[in-house]
Specification:
The complex is a heterodimer of chains A (280) and B (283).
Chain A (H helix, E strand, L loop, with lengths): L4 E10 L2 E11 L4 E5 L6 H8 L7 E6 L2 E2 L3 H5 L1 E4 L11 H12 L4 H11 L15 H12 L6 E5 L7 H16 L3 E5 L3 H7 L2 E6 L2 E6 L1 H4 L2 E8 L2 E5 L7 H10 L4 E8 L2 H8 L6
Parallel strand pairs in A: 3-8, 3-9, 6-7, 7-8
Antiparallel strand pairs in A: 1-2, 1-4, 4-5, 9-10, 11-12, 11-13
Chain B lengths: L1 H16 L2 H27 L10 H29 L4 H5 L4 H4 L5 H35 L8 H23 L2 H28 L2 H13 L1 H13 L5 H9 L9 H24 L4
Chain lengths: 280, 283
């Protein structure tokens, strides 16, 4: 089966400005890929090309084997834009019904009820969008993106307006979608969230992929920390295999050892390093 | 086809929920009320007037008043068409309303066609209702009826459809405000062209008349309006007929079947350019 999203040599120029400079990326089946990068890195442009809103200058993008932007490709995906608005006069139920009709979904009322339940909006199904908080609208946006059971979900900053509880709901929702076999490309600035839910992370900078891999692959060892009665001691050059020897030496020197911890870099460290320092 | 119907219905529901129709109905009733009052006083006054020789005062008053009502009908229809379509593409894209619809498996051309049909479904009945209501008021108050009953109304509706198509085209390239201003200015230009034709006719200036004719065909809603004006008095001759050809807000001018064919082709052409422009647009 073809990848949910396959992108190769993707270039997008807006006049003299190069938004993407030859990006290669793949999102496999049931895979949850996090897309990271500073503002202007080309994340949203990449997502927009994938869903057919923007045309690539050169390169290829395919969604489930169909050319990105084609009717078949759009039928296979769900999309939530970073900045989106729904007509304020529509109720949650009406909005989902509109998208069901446009997506050709035959899920009817049952699908709408399930989706609203999934995002915690069942009680608000008759509420107009204009009477919803920004967080509720964002959750409704996610429900809208899931109409028609898409194989690929493109989420551009889906948690930017959510409070911690809302973010947790979305996290659980993403895990549930993964269990159901949905592939997700998640564009977010919330590194901790990406680290928690994503199988793989891709970091973009200046329209190019500068780092990619699983969170474990990206994490680099940063030494060993051992807690003794004299306090915590750092061994920056040490690795996992050095821990027994270090403990033995400390005990031999008459220290009481209370614990040892292998230190690895966080996704935030990796990200900051990849995009060129704290100022990025 | 389902997608076209869905989007067209969405446009209609939006107009309903946003109370567009309530405002339009209120203004229309006010317009018709004032028109009825004007017609009543005018015909009452005409009954006591001795007109110059060769002029039928009742026919002149009836056709002139109804010609003004036709201009009012065209104007209100155009206002409605512009406000229903001015932000269809770029305006809705800037407000981030368009993107969730465009990523669905419907063609961009289907979206434009649907929005045009939605606007047409509102504007055409509105223009026809207003046209026949004004005709009825004129006929009941002054016992004057136009020489052609249906054709002028259809031509006015056609004129409004042309403006709706132009507004949709403008919405692909311009922001809502810029598009609204541009289309209203275009509408104004058409009226000026009609008035120039009028002046050229009176001054017997072939150059001015020719220029006005070219302008009217370049923006054929004006030519349709002129043809509709002509149609309401096509059997009226003599001095009365001559005076009525000058018409209110642009002279009456025969367009005929060629004009109607051109109007249809014009809408198709404008629509094709809009579709091509929309297909190439990044959102």
């Amino acid at each position: 089966m073809s990848a949910a999203l396959a992108v190769s040599g993707l270039v997008k120029r807006y006049g003299a400005v190069e938004a993407l400079g030859g990006v290669d990326l793949e999102v496999g089946d049931s895979e949850l890929v996090g897309l990271l990068g500073p503002n202007g890195a080309g994340k949203s442009t990449l997502v927009k090309i994938a869903c057919g809103l923007v045309r690539a200058t050169t390169g290829h993008a395919e969604v489930c084997g169909a050319r990105a932007g084609s009717r078949e490709a759009r039928a296979a995906l769900g999309y939530l834009a970073e900045l989106f608005r729904f007509p304020g006069w529509m109720t949650a139920d009406e909005l989902l019904e509109l998208h069901q009709r446009l997506a050709g979904s035959r899920g009817g009322e049952r699908e709408r009820g399930e989706l609203l339940e999934l995002v915690g909006l069942r009680e608000a199904r008759r509420r107009p969008v204009e009477a919803m908080s920004k967080g509720m609208q964002q959750r409704l946006g996610i429900a809208q993106a899931l109409v028609g059971s898409p194989r690929l979900l493109l989420l551009d900053e889906p948690t930017s307006a959510l409070d911690p509880v809302g973010r947790r709901t979305v996290r659980k929702l993403l895990e549930e979608l993964q269990r159901r076999g949905v592939s997700v490309l998640l564009n977010s600035h919330l590194l901790s969230e990406i680290e928690l839910v994503c199988d793989r992370v891709v970091i973009l900078l200046g329209g190019r992929v500068v780092s990619a891999g699983t969170p474990a692959e990206l994490a680099r060892p940063r030494g060993v920390e051992i807690e003794t009665d004299a306090g915590k001691r750092m061994y920056p050059e040490a690795g996992r295999e050095d821990i027994p020897r270090l403990i033995a030496e400390l005990v031999r020197d008459g220290k009481n050892v209370y614990g040892a911890r292998l230190l690895t870099s966080t996704l935030e460290d990796v990200y900051v390093e990849a995009v060129g320092g704290e100022g990025s | 086809m389902t997608a076209i119907w869905t989007i067209a219905e969405y446009g209609l529901r939006e107009a309903l929920r946003r109370k567009v129709f309530v405002v339009v109905c209120f203004l229309t009733i006010a317009f018709l009320g004032l028109y009825w009052l004007g017609a009543r006083y005018a015909f009452h006054h005409v009954a006591g007037v001795v007109p110059p020789e060769g002029v039928d005062a009742r026919t002149f008053a009836g056709a002139f008043l109804f010609g003004m009502a036709m201009f009012g009908t065209l104007f209100l229809g155009v206002v409605l068409a512009i406000f229903l379509t001015l932000g269809t593409v770029r305006g809705d894209a800037e407000r981030a309303l368009l993107q969730p619809l465009v990523v669905r498996p419907i063609g961009r051309s289907a979206l434009l066609v649907a929005r045009f049909l939605g606007a047409a479904a509102v504007c055409v009945p509105y223009v026809l209702i207003l046209y026949f209501a004004a005709m009825l008021l004129t006929g009941l108050e002054g016992s004057w009826w136009p020489d052609r009953i249906v054709t002028p109304g259809l031509e006015l509706a056609g004129g409004v459809l042309i403006v709706a198509a132009l507004s949709l085209l403008g919405s692909v390239f311009l922001s809502s405000i810029a598009n609204g201003i541009a289309i209203f200015m275009l509408f104004g230009s058409g009226l000026v062209a009609g008035l120039l034709g009028n002046i050229g006719h009176v001054l017997n200036s072939p150059g001015l008349t020719h220029a006005a004719k070219i302008a009217a065909w370049a923006i054929p809603f004006e030519a349709l309006y002129q043809d509709a004006l002509r149609a309401i008095t096509e059997k009226t001759s003599g001095l009365t007929g001559f005076l009525l050809r000058l018409g209110p807000f642009g002279g009456a001018e025969q367009g005929g079947a060629a004009l109607r064919l051109w109007a249809v082709a014009y809408i198709v052409l404008v629509g094709a350019i809009a579709v091509a422009g929309f297909a190439r647009r990044d959102l």
